[in-house]
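Entry:
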Amino acid sequence: MKPWLDCRNGTIRLTLHVQPGAKKTEAAGEHGDCLKIRLAAPPVDGKANAALLAWLAQRFSVAKRDVQLLSGDKSRRKVVLLQCEASEEDALQRLDLQ
Protein backbone atom coordinates (compact mmCIF):
# COMPACT_ATOMS: atom_id res chain seq x y z
CA MET A 1 0.00 0.00 0.00
CA LYS A 2 1.53 3.26 -1.18
CA PRO A 3 0.36 6.46 0.57
CA TRP A 4 0.45 8.36 -2.75
CA LEU A 5 -1.58 5.80 -4.74
CA ASP A 6 -5.30 5.10 -4.40
CA CYS A 7 -6.94 2.74 -6.92
CA ARG A 8 -10.68 2.20 -6.56
CA ASN A 9 -14.03 2.52 -8.32
CA GLY A 10 -12.45 2.86 -11.77
CA THR A 11 -10.18 5.74 -10.75
CA ILE A 12 -6.57 6.21 -9.75
CA ARG A 13 -5.67 9.07 -7.42
CA LEU A 14 -2.01 10.08 -7.33
CA THR A 15 -0.36 12.48 -4.87
CA LEU A 16 2.73 13.83 -6.60
CA HIS A 17 5.80 15.94 -5.93
CA VAL A 18 6.71 17.43 -9.31
CA GLN A 19 10.17 18.66 -10.29
CA PRO A 20 9.94 20.66 -13.55
CA GLY A 21 12.91 21.45 -15.77
CA ALA A 22 14.49 17.97 -15.59
CA LYS A 23 16.40 16.33 -18.46
CA LYS A 24 13.61 13.81 -19.08
CA THR A 25 10.14 13.03 -17.78
CA GLU A 26 10.07 10.05 -15.43
CA ALA A 27 8.82 8.73 -12.11
CA ALA A 28 11.69 9.06 -9.64
CA GLY A 29 10.49 7.09 -6.60
CA GLU A 30 8.92 8.17 -3.35
CA HIS A 31 9.36 11.62 -1.84
CA GLY A 32 7.81 11.53 1.64
CA ASP A 33 4.15 10.61 1.17
CA CYS A 34 4.24 11.54 -2.54
CA LEU A 35 5.54 10.04 -5.77
CA LYS A 36 8.27 12.24 -7.24
CA ILE A 37 7.91 12.98 -10.95
CA ARG A 38 10.69 14.67 -12.89
CA LEU A 39 9.30 16.71 -15.79
CA ALA A 40 11.21 17.87 -18.85
CA ALA A 41 8.83 20.83 -19.26
CA PRO A 42 9.58 24.24 -17.74
CA PRO A 43 7.36 25.63 -14.95
CA VAL A 44 6.06 28.44 -17.19
CA ASP A 45 2.47 29.30 -18.21
CA GLY A 46 1.07 25.91 -17.15
CA LYS A 47 3.41 23.99 -19.46
CA ALA A 48 4.58 21.69 -16.67
CA ASN A 49 1.00 20.84 -15.66
CA ALA A 50 0.01 20.15 -19.27
CA ALA A 51 3.10 17.97 -19.78
CA LEU A 52 2.38 16.06 -16.55
CA LEU A 53 -1.22 15.30 -17.53
CA ALA A 54 -0.22 14.29 -21.06
CA TRP A 55 2.56 12.01 -19.73
CA LEU A 56 0.19 10.32 -17.28
CA ALA A 57 -2.46 9.85 -20.01
CA GLN A 58 0.16 8.19 -22.23
CA ARG A 59 1.48 5.95 -19.41
CA PHE A 60 -2.01 4.74 -18.49
CA SER A 61 -3.29 4.56 -22.10
CA VAL A 62 -6.21 6.90 -21.49
CA ALA A 63 -7.39 10.06 -23.23
CA LYS A 64 -6.11 13.39 -21.88
CA ARG A 65 -9.69 14.27 -20.87
CA ASP A 66 -9.56 11.29 -18.44
CA VAL A 67 -6.71 12.87 -16.45
CA GLN A 68 -7.64 15.71 -14.12
CA LEU A 69 -5.55 17.96 -11.88
CA LEU A 70 -7.51 18.12 -8.61
CA SER A 71 -5.14 20.38 -6.68
CA GLY A 72 -1.70 21.97 -6.85
CA ASP A 73 -2.02 24.10 -9.97
CA LYS A 74 0.79 26.44 -8.84
CA SER A 75 2.49 24.05 -6.39
CA ARG A 76 5.02 21.23 -6.65
CA ARG A 77 2.63 19.03 -4.66
CA LYS A 78 -0.22 17.95 -6.91
CA VAL A 79 -3.16 15.57 -6.70
CA VAL A 80 -4.21 13.97 -10.00
CA LEU A 81 -7.24 11.80 -10.75
CA LEU A 82 -7.25 9.35 -13.66
CA GLN A 83 -10.37 7.63 -14.98
CA CYS A 84 -8.74 4.22 -15.37
CA GLU A 85 -9.50 0.72 -14.17
CA ALA A 86 -6.22 -0.60 -12.74
CA SER A 87 -4.87 -2.41 -9.72
CA GLU A 88 -2.12 -0.93 -7.57
CA GLU A 89 0.31 -3.44 -9.09
CA ASP A 90 -0.70 -2.44 -12.63
CA ALA A 91 -0.37 1.27 -11.79
CA LEU A 92 3.14 0.74 -10.40
CA GLN A 93 4.10 -1.17 -13.53
CA ARG A 94 2.78 1.59 -15.81
CA LEU A 95 4.89 4.11 -13.88
CA ASP A 96 8.00 1.90 -14.26
CA LEU A 97 8.23 1.42 -10.49
CA GLN A 98 8.28 -2.40 -10.51
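The first helix runs from residue 47 to 59.
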